[in-house]
Amino acid sequence: MKAVHLGLAVALLVLCLSSVQLRASDDEIFYESFDVSFQGRWIVSEKDDYQGVWKHAKSEGHDDYGLLVSEKARKYAIVSELDEPASLKDGTVVLQFETRLQNGLECGGAYLKYLRPQDAGWKAKEFDNESPYSIMFGPDKCGATNKVHFIVKHKNPKTGEYGEHHLKNPPSVPADKLSHVYTAILESGNNVRILIDGSEKKKANFLSEDDFEPPIIPAKTIADPDDKKPEDWDERAKIPDPNAVKPDDWDEDAPMEIVDEEAEKPEGWLDDEPEEIDDPEATKPEDWDDEEDGEWEAPKIDNPNCETAPGCGEWKKPMKRNPEYKGKWHAPEIDNPNYKGIWKPRQIPNPSYFEIEKPDFDPVAAIGIEIWTMQDGILFDNILIAKDEKLATSYRDEKWKPKFEVEKEKQKAEEAAASGPDGLAEYQKKVFDVLYKIADISFLSQYKSKIIDVIEKGEKQPNLTIGIIVSIVVVIFTILLRLVFGGKKQQPAKREEKSTVAAESSSDQSSSGEKEGEEKEDGGAAAPPRRRSGPRRDN
């Protein structure tokens, strides 16, 4: 009897486990752990451009396997087909995968492409950058580019053409060599959320023109391509005054500078001493041939007798600004009575415009990795497509987090050993983490690449940490000032002497001749006599 009860218990346990597994598989559309070789499940592109060798390899420091980019400066392409195409129209769809940049990433991609069915015109063995996808998602970094791409392709129901739409202000790629997990959650309410290591970095609406570039829904109106600017359309806001006459006392030929007749030669000026003399210590090289090289001359040096004197050589009176100088006369500008404003073509209804309540993405039939990279050591792992965010969270906690914690502790130990007892490196790491978050702020998007470039230089030279912080604070402060004050630039201050002279020479005159005179003033003020430096003969 006990044996019967035991058998029933085991049967019930097996049934429960099978039920749990069934429910998990219902939510799991695709999962690849790379625990065993990828051969047979993944197809390597046979296109000639893709010579990079994929390997089934362990993640450094772990017994866990992944798909490895094994060579530098190569193009790679590999694809795995789903058992059935996965719809992106109904309910929640979660895209998640791990990648580890074991040798860093200076220039290259580590993103995935979620491909449309093959009836869209592609073959697995010919998979390349032209193969049509519905979504491209993942890290990409090279030069000014440093982002976690999220790109969707959507078919315009009016034209039948597919448009490529990029997420605006995407998050940056983590700047380390640790394992990271990237998650994109496509929600039924037209929203998408981008997570890195389980932390939300970006939320966007597919149908919002503020979140994707170009927007999925095109503009209602467009400029009429057939509209032409009328020939008599005058866009000049100002014109020269046709009634203005050059004043009789306006001398356009007067020089900008004249000799300062009031200047006096400084006391102690050495008229008979040259500014430079032959170097008394120089000797003629032994291999000098007068016939081939010409007559040898000793190189020149500054005359030591001139060091304590105000100057040497012939003294000449310096030049000064000519108070009579006015420059070329131009008629002052007045408001243009025929001004019509800047011409713009008229707007017409956009024939490509459409309205939808939710995006109509093509289903995903395969997952492909098609990248070009200058670094090796990129490892992909735990690729998941699921219907439930909780399932993605459980995979993240079970598969990724233990590895990340080990790597993080090892990194801390290495930083502590490198920084010594003061723990400076750990402090710097926290600072740089904060700075990367600052770089992701939307209103700094225009300056993001420059800020990240500064941060990366600081990571390579940790002794510059304080300077990096100050630099970025200055950039942010400058941007805030521009936002507050409308980006107006302060006019450069003129020298007091030049302003006075300009005022005296052009009072009551309203013409662009004044402006020209001011533009040419540089160097016009009288300067104290100084010793002139002449050319030297090199040894």
TrEMBL record:
MF term (GO), any: unfolded protein binding
Recorded topology in the membrane: Single-pass type I membrane protein
Biological processes, Gene Ontology terms: ERAD pathway; protein folding
The keyword Cell inner membrane is assigned to this record: no
Region (Disordered) location: 211-318, 491-539
Function noted in UniProt: Calcium-binding protein that interacts with newly synthesized monoglucosylated glycoproteins in the endoplasmic reticulum. It may act in assisting protein assembly and/or in the retention within the ER of unassembled protein subunits. It seems to play a major role in the quality control apparatus of the ER by the retention of incorrectly folded proteins.
Signal peptide: 1-24
Residue ranges, compositional bias (Acidic residues): 249-280, 287-296
Keyword Transmembrane: yes
Primary site of residence: endoplasmic reticulum
Pfam families: Calreticulin
Amino acid composition bias (Basic and acidic residues), ranges on this chain: 223-239
Sorted UniProt keywords: Calcium, Chaperone, Disulfide bond, Endoplasmic reticulum, Glycoprotein, Lectin, Membrane, Metal-binding, Repeat, Signal, Transmembrane, Transmembrane helix
Transmembrane domains' residue ranges: 464-485
Amino acid composition bias (Basic residues), ranges on this chain: 529-539
Organism the protein comes from: Cucumis sativus (Cucumber)
Family statement: Belongs to the calreticulin family.
Subcellular location: Endoplasmic reticulum membrane
Composition skew (Low complexity), residue ranges: 502-512
Cysteine disulfide links: 107-142
Name the record gives this protein: Calnexin homolog
GO cellular component term, pick one: endoplasmic reticulum membrane
